[in-house]
Give the backbone structure.
Amino acid sequence: MLFFGKNNRQDINLIPEEEQILRKKKNFRLLLGFAVLVFSVVALTLVAIFILLLSEKSKAKDVQVKTETELLNWQKVASAAASLNKVSQRYNSYKSFSLAQSKLELKLEKLAKKLPNKVQLLNLFVDNSGKAKIAGKAASADVAYQLLQIFQSQSDFASVSLSALTKGQSNDVTFSLDLVIH
């Protein structure tokens, strides 16, 4: 019955009862010490993780604030740079236009010097090549033809033609001239 059933025999314990109590206390102390040690290690680990988490959150917030500050600074500079770029482009456009059109101003001055006093310009269209279309009023048809003769006789003007001549309600006439200014 040693292997298949309970043995009715009693355990013989040769260790005195006092020593058994001391061993149980010692084992309990070791077990309690081990539990306290494990609990302490876990608690310290959790506290360390919590402190690390707070530290990282603080660093992340500082990085976010610095990033936002730098972004605002960059946006201020970017808008100024964009404005400066626009001004630069407009200046270059003006510069190229003024270089291309400097002769146009001289051409208009030549045209203004040749106009008789009794002529009023209503519209003036001049392109870069010097082609001009003049619409105006004259006191009479004779003044309009006189203007045509002046332009045809000058070497500063070419291809001068009278494209329209219309008598108004009073004695005045409206005219339209096409010409090329050299």
About this structure: The first strand starts at residue 119 and ends at 126.
